[in-house]
Design goal:
Blueprint: H1 4-7, H2 9-13, E1 29-36, E2 40-46, E3 51-56, H3 66-79, E4 86-90, E5 95-99, E6 103-104, H4 110-121, H5 132-139, H6 148-155, H7 158-169, E7 173-175, E8 184-187, E9 190-193, E10 200-202, H8 204-212, H9 220-228, H10 234-255
Antiparallel strand pairs: 1-2, 2-3, 3-5, 4-5, 6-8, 7-10, 8-9
Helix pairs in contact: 4-8, 4-9, 5-10, 7-10, 8-9, 8-10
Length: 273
């Protein structure tokens, strides 16, 4: 069985080709796991504390260009100074070596997160769009059989259908789409975004709604106002919050079932019905 560590071997073997200002003096050694997400594993590099190695848990061959799309957006974000710099990319094994940028940040203010999000929304457009409606239908296959009819009723309900339609008609911006506290790092006064696997063209309202869920209540309107300004649409923000809650719940059924709600007896996770 090929492990995540095994898939990093080529990237480590090619250490002399890494894009560094000061070249390494010797081959780096893979250290312990620093963190694990639903889609990737992050490793420490022994003797190189300024770098980390990241590899996808599952290759994304079933999604054409998914890894290349992530790297394209990540590279643009790094060039803009809002993401860790990429040092080496192994496209075949879907592994990267990147700079270790700061520490997990708690707490986050709405203004600081809004500033980062606005910078993301000004990144160059890409040929990659978030397909929320199709993704929701796909996630239905992961819910327990006894809950499936309840979930199908929600996904195909009039209110949710209208919310999807509102977001689909909104102006496209490049969005991170997963800007939760776990995907934020701080270095001094600088806030960085990591884990760009869901980044794509989409609605800013969904991007804001996903990020709002991790903020204290008092900070949530500050984020929305900072990003959306005077053009803020309450109807679109409500749609974004409902779809963000739905996608998060369905995502939990696929990747973190112990945290997933059961809609047959609990709809408290759906903020506005």
């Amino acid at each position: 069985m090929v492990t995540a560590a095994n898939r990093l071997s080529e990237a480590l073997h090619n250490w002399a080709d890494w894009n560094l200002i000061a070249p390494l003096a010797a081959a780096p050694r893979l250290g312990p796991v620093l963190s694990e997400g639903s889609g990737h594993i992050l490793f420490e590099l022994l003797d190189e504390p300024s770098l980390v190695a990241r590899v996808r848990r599952r290759p994304t061959s079933e999604v054409e260009g998914a890894f290349s799309g992530e790297v394209e957006i990540w590279s643009a974000a790094a060039a803009a100074g809002i993401a860790p710099a990429l040092v080496y990319v192994d496209r075949q094994q879907q592994a990267v070596i990147c700079e270790r940028a700061g520490q997990t940040s708690h707490p986050i203010t709405g203004a600081a997160l809004g500033q980062l999000m606005c910078a993301i929304h000004t990144l160059p457009k890409v040929n990659r769009r978030l397909t929320l409606r199709a993704d929701a239908v796909s996630y239905l296959s992961s819910v327990p059989a006894e809950q499936r009819s309840a979930w199908q009723a929600i996904v195909h309900s009039t209110d949710i259908d209208q919310a999807f339609s509102l977001l689909e008609q909104d102006t496209d911006y490049l969005c991170h789409n997963d800007l939760t506290v776990g995907n934020l790092l701080t270095q001094g006064d600088q806030l960085f975004a990591i884990d760009w696997e869901y980044a794509a063209m989409g609605s800013r309202y969904f991007d804001v709604a996903i990020a709002m869920a991790d903020l204290p209540l008092v900070e949530q309107p500050l984020l929305a106002e900072h990003v959306l300004g005077q053009s803020l649409s309450n109807a679109l923000l409500t749609a974004g919050c409902n779809i963000a809650a739905l996608m998060t719940a369905l995502w939990q059924h696929r990747f973190d079932p112990s945290q997933a709600p059961d809609p047959r007896n609990d709809l408290s996770w759906l903020p506005r019905q």
